[in-house]
User: What shape does this take?
Amino acid sequence: MIIFSMFILICIIMTVIEIRPLKKNDKKKYLVVNGSILIISFIIFLIHEIHNFSITNLMISIFKPFADTIFS
Amino acid sequence: MKIAEINYLQLASIIFIQILGTSLLIIPGTVVEVAGVDGWISQIVGTIMALIVGMMVFYLYNNFPQDNLIIIFEKLFGKIIGNIFGFGFVIYCILSLSTVIKQGCSITGYIFLPETSPLIFFIVFFLIVVYITKVGMNALARTNVLVMLLLITTFLVIIITGVPLLNVPLKPLLSEGLFPVLKGSLSPISWMGQVILITMIFPYLTSGNKKNIKTTILMTLIVVGIDHTLITMFTLGILGLEAKDLLIPVYSVAKLIEIDLIWRRLDVMIMFSWVAGVTLKMSFWYFCTVLALKQLLHLNKYEPIIIPLAFLTFVIAYYSTNNTVELTFYLGKIYPILSLFSYEFTIPLIMCLTLFIRRKRISKDSKEFTP
Assistant: This one.
C-alpha cells in the first residue's frame, strides 16, 4: 500500500511537471486523462486487495470453456 | 514535427525482437505440451499461418502507408465503430503488455534471482520502459538491431553446441493424427501474430518502397519461424517429452551444454538475451499502447501520459497471475484464443475484407498521424 501510494504521488508530480508548459485547454485534457488512468489503477488495486481477483483471472474464467473445448 | 525514419534492418529487428524476445525460451514447452513429439511440425504450421497475418499487415500498409492502426480503423469503419475498435485495441495492448511484463519479471525472478522480491523487477522494468518510451522510436529501433544480433548469436550457439547432446528420436511422426499438430500451432500463431503491432508504426516507415517492406515483413517472419522450429526440434531431441513439464525448456537445454572455449556455462548468455529481449519487447508494446491512446484521445503529444499509463499497466501485470503454473496455463491455452479471436487474426481479416469491398469509398482525407 505504501509503495502503491508513493507511485501514485510520483505519477501526480510527473504529470504536473509535464503539463506545466502546455496551454490551458491541453492542461485540462491531460489532467482528466491521467486522473482517469490513476483512478482505474486504484480500482484494480482495491479489487485485488479486497477480492484477490485480477483481470487475468477474469480472462481465464471467460475463455476457459473455449480453451477446454479446443485443447481437450 | 519530423517523424523518425525506420529502415528495413530496423523494421526486421523490431519484428524479430517483438516475437523472439519472449518466445525463444518459452515456446517449445507450450507447443510440446499440446502437440507432443510433433511440436516442431506445429511450428511450421504456425509460421505458414503467421505469413497470412503478415500479408494482411502489408495489405493494410499498401493502402494506408501514412496512417497507424487507430486512423485506419476510423477510415474503414467510421468514427463511432472505428473508435470502439481503437479503444478495444488499447485494452488488448494493455492486457498483452501486462502478460509480457509478468513473464519478464516472473521468469527473471524464478530462474535467475529467486531470493529477490518480485516488486524489485517490476520497479526496474517500469523505469526502463518509461525511459525508452520517452526517448522515442528512433532509439528503440537502433537498440533493437543490437539486441537482435545478441539473440541470433545465442540461438546459433545453442544450436551448434547442442548437436552432440541430441539423443531422443523425433518419432513416431503424426502418431495421433494432424489434429494435435493444428492445436499446437495456435500458440506459435498467437506469438507470431504480434506482427500486427507493426501497423502502429506505419508512418515511421517512410524511407523504403512498398515491395521491400513486404519482403522485410515476410522474410523476418520466415526466419522467426525457422528459429522456432529448430529450437523446438533441439529441445525435443535433447529433453524429449520432458520439455512439456518445464517452464523454460531452452534454459534447461542450455544448462546441459558445456563448452570449453571462452566460458563454460551457456545459461549466462541465455540470461543476457532474455533480459535484453524482454525489455525491448515491453518497450515496443508500451510505445504502441501510448501512441494508440494518444491518437484515440486526440492528444497533441504522448509524453505526459507515459508515466500514469505505465503505472496502470504494471499494476495490472503485478496483480495478474498468482504463480508460474497459472502463467503457463494462461500463455499456452488462454492467450492464443484471446489474441487470435481479436486483434491478431479476426479483426485484421475483417479490416482487409472491408477494405477490399469498400476500397473506392474509403475516405482519404480525414485524420493524419502526428508523432
Observations:
- The longest helix of chain B spans residues 79-112.
- Chain B has 14 helices and no strands.
